[in-house]
Amino acid sequence: MFERFEVxxxxxxxxxxxxxxxxxxxxxxxxxxxxxxxxxxxxxVLESVRRAERELIDAQATKSYVGAAGNLDFNREMxxxxxxxxxxxxxxxxxxxxQTPGGCGALRLxxxxxxxxxxxxxxxxxxxxxxNHPPLIAGSGLKLEYYPYFDPATGGVQFSAxxxxxxRLPPRAVVLLHxxxxxxxxxxxxxxxxxxxxxxxxxxSLVPFLDMAYQGLGEGVEEDxxxxxxxxxxxxxxxxxxxxxxxxxxxxxxxxxxxxxNDSAKAADATLSQLVRLARGIWSMPPDxxxxxxxxxxxxxxxxxxxxxxxxxxxxxxQTLRRAAVAELRRACxxxxxxxxxxxRGMFSFLGISTEQVRALRSEHHVYMTDDSRVxxxxxxxxxxxxxxxxxxxxx
Length: 396
Ligand SMILES: Cc1ncc(COP(=O)(O)O)c(C=O)c1O
Known about the structure:
The chain has 396 residues and is α/β, with parallel strands linked by helices. 45% of the residues lie in helices and 14% in strands. Residues 34, 102-104, 130, 178, 183, 211, 213, 243, 245, 251, 256 line the site of pyridoxal-5'-phosphate.
């Protein structure tokens, strides 16, 4: 059966990581894989997570199944975190939530739900988008197309081109949007732009599918949820895929949730039954460990306060590094404008240099980033910033 298989190259990002690990040079800098790193270059377990995990281990009475919708108390806590406790969607009966294995699980489950409702649906994603969006969405059998998004000339969003393209979509086309901290570019819409986009989505009867993988790592927990809250207050149907991997640092625990807003409470009940059936056919039941940790943190005031402080420290470190990178790059290469890095949000930025220049950074200076020049800002450190900036100056 498998005789005809050919070896597929591993993900570019995984190859990059392997090359970084194999590089013996002490000056090496890893700006590749998208995990948060502290000033020592480590991705530690948060103290709030450790405390909740200890409690979990002491108190857990059973390892029996949790059910296809996952940990229901986790789902409720996530609704409050994502929407805010006072959001109209919460008490409306129109919102249904299913725990998923990570944000990836939520994206895939959402795509499967759309396929079941309307198999001909096309999902439109930004140019560029996160490399795992196409396989997750198209893997469900839905067609994928692209809308204009990033403007390399400004490091911002090509908003009028984006609006122009979305204006031409047929009703009920699905538009995948990064709620905040756009991956891979770091370029987000302003609140005013989100409002204009909402009007277009309403007018054209489009269905937004919001992907929120970085709540709290851009401007703040509330600020980063602006688009989700706005869209779900004003539209009949919205899907929201949420990941706890980055903001709780529970990457390998595979913790996420899919929220689906429906036109009516009756439709919501039917949607939930479909979601549960779909989940049964894919992973059957999601893993509980990470979800229970997140539930314990969000449901306990001291844990939650500690988590908010730890998340705030991660966010501030990223913002500080962004400002410092702009200053160092200005010093090392005054002929080129990198100020957009300071205007962007979240863990990633595109440096906007060529593939040859990226490869020269790797081979000559031991600085590792993906070929499209995406940089994980959290991979930088105060002490290696001047080295990084000088290396960039030498290749451009
Ligand atoms: C844009 C985006 N969406 C979703 C995810 C989902 O992550 P996970 O499945 O690890 O929770 C990520 C992770 O890198 C991401 O960058």
